[in-house]
Amino acid sequence: MIKKMVREHFMLSFPFVLGRENTVLENTLKPPQAAAATSKTTTDSTSSETTTTTTKAAAAVKVNGSDSDGFETASESGVSDKEEEQEQNVNKEISSKNTTEDQPKQDTRNDDELIQRGIEEANEAKLEGNRLFGNGQYEEALLQYDVALQVSPPDVPSSVELRSICHSNRGVCFLKLGKFEDTIKECSKALALNPSYMKALVRRGEAHEKLENFEEAIADLKKILELDPSNDQARRTIRRLEPLAAAKREKMKEEMIGKLKDMGNSLLGRFGMSIDNFKAVQDPNTGSYSISFQR
């Protein structure tokens, strides 16, 4: 009876304590429901996040334009792009290599065509020069031979003979025009390309004879005889030119002696003497001279 009264008194005095206790008990008794609610909330949140992530991945895949399912990692995507880039580089290198290998063939073909075209044009100009020369139009023929030399490819074996002929033909044009120095120059160019070119030797020898270069003319004629021992014309010309060459040598000696005499007189005159005080006597056996002094 006393306990009951105490309990009732306690409840009247502290009703909120009991209510709190009941609340605590109630909360303690209902944890499964709260946990379920929490679990549901977490699940909904995770599902939402997963859906959002999947949507973003799908959008990324769509933007990239690939057929990826959206589950590859960033590193996998990077590797895939790198492999594709490497493959493209390899293809470019192969294409570049093929182009480089084909280029020399194309260049060679183009060079051959240019050389052939140049030779054809040079031959046409040379033939026109021959026609003009035959008509006595030497100046015009010179121009055509010059055109042939300009269009013919230099340093090409197939054009060496053509260039040599054109230089020799220019030489004979100058010979007809009386320009013997130019004849010698052109024929020398022809012989530089073809040392055994007989016509160039004949024309240069004739030009040397016209200029009274008898020694040089004889040298060209002897070269002709080396190439053609049966050339009687060259042999006869040599016999004709040898006396002229000897006379010219003697004349040159006399001229040299005269120049030396004048120089000696200018020096000896300071001492009251002259070259006349000295007498030169030629030795008939050796052809040399001895000098003797006389007052």
From TrEMBL:
The keyword Metal-binding does not apply. Residues 34-60 have a biased composition (Low complexity). It holds the Pfam family TPR_1. It comes from the Eukaryota. Residues 99-111 have a biased composition (Basic and acidic residues). TPR repeats lie at residues 164-197, 198-231. Keywords: TPR repeat. This is Uncharacterized protein.
